[in-house]
Fold:
Amino acid sequence: MASVADNLARVSARIRDAAVRSGREARDVRLVLVTKTIEPERVREAVAAGQRDLGENKVQEGRGKAEALAGDAVRWTMIGHLQSNKVKDVLRFAEEVQSLDRLSLTATLDKRLQHLGRGLDVLVQVNTSDEASKYGLHPDEVAAFLKELAAFNSLRPRGFMTLARFTPNIAEVRRCFRVLRDIRDRAMDDAPQGEALRHLSMGMSGDYEIAIEEGATIVRVGQAVFGPRPLPDSHYWPGAAGVG
Structure:
Protein backbone atom coordinates (compact mmCIF):
# COMPACT_ATOMS: atom_id res chain seq x y z
CA MET A 1 0.00 0.00 0.00
CA ALA A 2 1.39 3.41 -0.98
CA SER A 3 2.16 5.81 1.83
CA VAL A 4 0.36 9.09 2.40
CA ALA A 5 3.50 10.92 1.29
CA ASP A 6 3.70 8.88 -1.93
CA ASN A 7 0.03 9.49 -2.73
CA LEU A 8 0.41 13.19 -2.00
CA ALA A 9 3.38 13.39 -4.35
CA ARG A 10 1.37 11.59 -7.05
CA VAL A 11 -1.57 13.98 -6.68
CA SER A 12 0.77 16.98 -6.73
CA ALA A 13 2.32 15.72 -9.97
CA ARG A 14 -1.10 15.31 -11.55
CA ILE A 15 -2.05 18.81 -10.45
CA ARG A 16 1.11 20.11 -12.07
CA ASP A 17 0.43 18.25 -15.32
CA ALA A 18 -3.18 19.43 -15.45
CA ALA A 19 -2.08 22.99 -14.79
CA VAL A 20 0.39 22.79 -17.68
CA ARG A 21 -2.36 21.48 -19.95
CA SER A 22 -4.44 24.54 -19.05
CA GLY A 23 -1.56 26.94 -19.73
CA ARG A 24 -0.67 27.56 -16.09
CA GLU A 25 1.86 26.46 -13.50
CA ALA A 26 1.45 24.19 -10.47
CA ARG A 27 1.71 27.17 -8.12
CA ASP A 28 -1.46 28.56 -9.71
CA VAL A 29 -3.50 25.72 -8.16
CA ARG A 30 -3.88 25.30 -4.40
CA LEU A 31 -4.48 21.84 -2.96
CA VAL A 32 -6.78 21.65 0.06
CA LEU A 33 -6.31 18.20 1.56
CA VAL A 34 -9.66 16.89 2.79
CA THR A 35 -9.15 15.13 6.13
CA LYS A 36 -12.69 13.99 6.93
CA THR A 37 -12.74 10.67 8.85
CA ILE A 38 -8.93 10.59 8.86
CA GLU A 39 -7.23 10.31 12.24
CA PRO A 40 -4.78 13.08 13.19
CA GLU A 41 -1.77 10.74 13.04
CA ARG A 42 -2.31 10.09 9.33
CA VAL A 43 -3.01 13.75 8.64
CA ARG A 44 0.31 14.54 10.31
CA GLU A 45 2.02 12.26 7.76
CA ALA A 46 0.77 14.59 5.03
CA VAL A 47 1.88 17.64 7.00
CA ALA A 48 5.33 16.09 7.41
CA ALA A 49 5.40 15.66 3.62
CA GLY A 50 4.82 19.39 3.17
CA GLN A 51 1.03 19.78 3.03
CA ARG A 52 -0.21 22.91 4.82
CA ASP A 53 -3.80 23.47 3.62
CA LEU A 54 -6.32 21.16 5.30
CA GLY A 55 -10.09 21.04 4.85
CA GLU A 56 -12.94 19.67 6.93
CA ASN A 57 -16.65 19.15 6.29
CA LYS A 58 -17.93 18.76 9.85
CA VAL A 59 -17.34 21.48 12.45
CA GLN A 60 -16.96 19.19 15.45
CA GLU A 61 -14.53 16.91 13.64
CA GLY A 62 -12.57 19.85 12.34
CA ARG A 63 -12.27 21.51 15.71
CA GLY A 64 -11.06 18.32 17.38
CA LYS A 65 -8.54 17.64 14.65
CA ALA A 66 -7.26 21.22 14.73
CA GLU A 67 -6.69 20.88 18.47
CA ALA A 68 -4.83 17.60 17.95
CA LEU A 69 -2.58 19.21 15.34
CA ALA A 70 -2.24 22.53 17.15
CA GLY A 71 1.56 22.35 17.09
CA ASP A 72 1.74 22.00 13.32
CA ALA A 73 1.93 24.91 10.88
CA VAL A 74 -1.33 24.31 8.99
CA ARG A 75 -4.27 26.33 7.70
CA TRP A 76 -7.79 24.97 8.13
CA THR A 77 -10.64 25.51 5.70
CA MET A 78 -14.32 24.73 6.28
CA ILE A 79 -15.56 23.14 3.06
CA GLY A 80 -18.85 21.58 4.18
CA HIS A 81 -22.29 23.05 4.74
CA LEU A 82 -22.19 25.39 7.73
CA GLN A 83 -25.11 25.88 10.09
CA SER A 84 -25.40 29.31 11.68
CA ASN A 85 -25.41 27.83 15.18
CA LYS A 86 -21.93 26.37 14.50
CA VAL A 87 -20.30 29.68 13.56
CA LYS A 88 -18.70 30.24 16.95
CA ASP A 89 -17.09 26.81 16.86
CA VAL A 90 -15.92 26.97 13.26
CA LEU A 91 -14.15 30.28 13.87
CA ARG A 92 -12.09 28.61 16.59
CA PHE A 93 -10.07 26.81 13.93
CA ALA A 94 -10.97 27.81 10.37
CA GLU A 95 -9.26 30.63 8.52
CA GLU A 96 -11.48 30.20 5.48
CA VAL A 97 -15.06 29.12 4.74
CA GLN A 98 -15.77 27.85 1.23
CA SER A 99 -19.50 27.22 1.70
CA LEU A 100 -21.06 30.67 2.08
CA ASP A 101 -24.52 30.27 0.56
CA ARG A 102 -27.05 32.53 2.29
CA LEU A 103 -27.39 35.95 3.89
CA SER A 104 -28.40 34.62 7.30
CA LEU A 105 -25.07 32.78 7.58
CA THR A 106 -23.26 35.85 6.27
CA ALA A 107 -24.77 38.04 8.98
CA THR A 108 -23.98 35.52 11.73
CA LEU A 109 -20.38 35.16 10.60
CA ASP A 110 -19.92 38.92 10.34
CA LYS A 111 -21.35 39.57 13.79
CA ARG A 112 -19.05 37.03 15.40
CA LEU A 113 -16.03 38.24 13.46
CA GLN A 114 -16.72 41.83 14.48
CA HIS A 115 -16.76 40.65 18.09
CA LEU A 116 -13.44 38.86 17.59
CA GLY A 117 -11.90 41.77 15.72
CA ARG A 118 -10.78 39.67 12.78
CA GLY A 119 -11.63 38.94 9.17
CA LEU A 120 -12.31 35.75 7.23
CA ASP A 121 -11.68 34.60 3.68
CA VAL A 122 -14.86 33.20 2.13
CA LEU A 123 -15.96 31.57 -1.11
CA VAL A 124 -19.54 31.68 -2.33
CA GLN A 125 -20.98 28.22 -2.95
CA VAL A 126 -22.95 27.83 -6.18
CA ASN A 127 -25.15 24.86 -7.13
CA THR A 128 -24.02 24.50 -10.74
CA SER A 129 -25.59 21.06 -11.20
CA ASP A 130 -29.08 22.28 -10.24
CA GLU A 131 -29.58 19.29 -7.94
CA ALA A 132 -32.00 19.70 -5.05
CA SER A 133 -29.76 17.51 -2.87
CA LYS A 134 -26.91 20.03 -2.99
CA TYR A 135 -26.40 23.29 -1.17
CA GLY A 136 -25.40 26.54 -2.81
CA LEU A 137 -26.90 29.50 -4.59
CA HIS A 138 -28.62 29.10 -7.93
CA PRO A 139 -26.41 30.73 -10.58
CA ASP A 140 -29.07 33.38 -11.18
CA GLU A 141 -28.89 34.43 -7.51
CA VAL A 142 -25.16 35.11 -7.38
CA ALA A 143 -25.04 38.69 -8.65
CA ALA A 144 -27.62 39.94 -6.14
CA PHE A 145 -25.94 38.01 -3.32
CA LEU A 146 -22.58 39.63 -4.05
CA LYS A 147 -24.14 43.09 -3.83
CA GLU A 148 -25.56 42.25 -0.40
CA LEU A 149 -22.28 40.66 0.66
CA ALA A 150 -20.41 43.93 0.09
CA ALA A 151 -22.00 45.38 3.24
CA PHE A 152 -20.27 42.86 5.55
CA ASN A 153 -16.82 44.29 6.13
CA SER A 154 -15.28 41.42 8.09
CA LEU A 155 -15.78 38.94 5.26
CA ARG A 156 -13.25 38.82 2.43
CA PRO A 157 -14.87 37.21 -0.63
CA ARG A 158 -12.20 35.46 -2.71
CA GLY A 159 -14.26 33.63 -5.31
CA PHE A 160 -16.59 30.66 -5.70
CA MET A 161 -16.96 26.96 -4.89
CA THR A 162 -19.02 24.19 -6.47
CA LEU A 163 -19.46 20.43 -6.67
CA ALA A 164 -19.98 18.99 -10.13
CA ARG A 165 -22.67 16.42 -10.76
CA PHE A 166 -21.51 12.91 -9.80
CA THR A 167 -21.70 11.19 -13.16
CA PRO A 168 -19.46 9.30 -15.61
CA ASN A 169 -20.55 11.85 -18.22
CA ILE A 170 -17.40 13.97 -18.44
CA ALA A 171 -19.13 16.54 -20.63
CA GLU A 172 -21.65 17.19 -17.85
CA VAL A 173 -18.86 17.47 -15.26
CA ARG A 174 -17.09 20.01 -17.46
CA ARG A 175 -20.36 21.91 -17.95
CA CYS A 176 -20.72 22.36 -14.18
CA PHE A 177 -17.19 23.70 -13.91
CA ARG A 178 -17.67 26.03 -16.87
CA VAL A 179 -20.83 27.44 -15.31
CA LEU A 180 -18.82 28.45 -12.26
CA ARG A 181 -15.99 29.86 -14.36
CA ASP A 182 -18.45 31.99 -16.32
CA ILE A 183 -20.00 33.24 -13.06
CA ARG A 184 -16.53 34.16 -11.81
CA ASP A 185 -15.62 35.97 -15.01
CA ARG A 186 -18.80 38.04 -14.97
CA ALA A 187 -18.45 38.81 -11.28
CA MET A 188 -14.90 40.07 -11.70
CA ASP A 189 -16.25 42.58 -14.22
CA ASP A 190 -19.53 43.52 -12.54
CA ALA A 191 -19.56 42.71 -8.81
CA PRO A 192 -18.48 45.19 -6.10
CA GLN A 193 -15.63 42.87 -5.11
CA GLY A 194 -14.18 42.83 -8.64
CA GLU A 195 -10.75 41.25 -9.08
CA ALA A 196 -10.80 39.83 -5.54
CA LEU A 197 -13.21 37.13 -6.77
CA ARG A 198 -10.65 35.32 -8.91
CA HIS A 199 -10.60 31.94 -7.15
CA LEU A 200 -12.49 28.84 -8.27
CA SER A 201 -12.69 25.93 -5.81
CA MET A 202 -13.87 22.98 -7.85
CA GLY A 203 -12.76 19.42 -8.28
CA MET A 204 -12.33 16.54 -5.83
CA SER A 205 -10.56 13.17 -6.00
CA GLY A 206 -12.61 11.92 -8.94
CA ASP A 207 -12.48 15.02 -11.11
CA TYR A 208 -9.79 17.44 -9.92
CA GLU A 209 -7.73 17.18 -13.11
CA ILE A 210 -10.78 18.07 -15.21
CA ALA A 211 -11.51 20.96 -12.86
CA ILE A 212 -7.99 22.33 -13.29
CA GLU A 213 -8.32 22.08 -17.07
CA GLU A 214 -11.49 24.17 -16.72
CA GLY A 215 -9.80 26.85 -14.60
CA ALA A 216 -9.84 25.69 -10.97
CA THR A 217 -7.44 27.56 -8.70
CA ILE A 218 -8.31 25.38 -5.68
CA VAL A 219 -8.99 21.63 -5.61
CA ARG A 220 -10.28 19.64 -2.62
CA VAL A 221 -8.76 16.16 -2.57
CA GLY A 222 -8.94 13.50 0.13
CA GLN A 223 -9.42 9.91 -1.00
CA ALA A 224 -6.71 10.13 -3.66
CA VAL A 225 -4.25 10.71 -0.81
CA PHE A 226 -5.75 8.82 2.15
CA GLY A 227 -7.68 6.07 0.38
CA PRO A 228 -11.39 5.16 0.56
CA ARG A 229 -13.36 6.32 3.59
CA PRO A 230 -15.36 4.09 5.93
CA LEU A 231 -18.43 6.31 5.48
CA PRO A 232 -19.95 7.18 2.09
CA ASP A 233 -19.37 10.69 0.81
CA SER A 234 -23.12 11.31 0.96
CA HIS A 235 -22.61 11.55 4.73
CA TYR A 236 -20.59 14.70 4.06
CA TRP A 237 -21.48 15.90 0.55
CA PRO A 238 -25.15 15.47 -0.35
CA GLY A 239 -25.45 14.19 -3.88
CA ALA A 240 -21.70 13.63 -4.30
CA ALA A 241 -21.05 10.05 -3.19
CA GLY A 242 -17.67 8.74 -4.17
CA VAL A 243 -15.99 11.89 -5.46
CA GLY A 244 -14.42 13.50 -2.37
About this structure: Residues 4-226 form a domain with the TIM Barrel fold (CATH 3.20.20.10). The first strand starts at residue 30 and ends at 34.
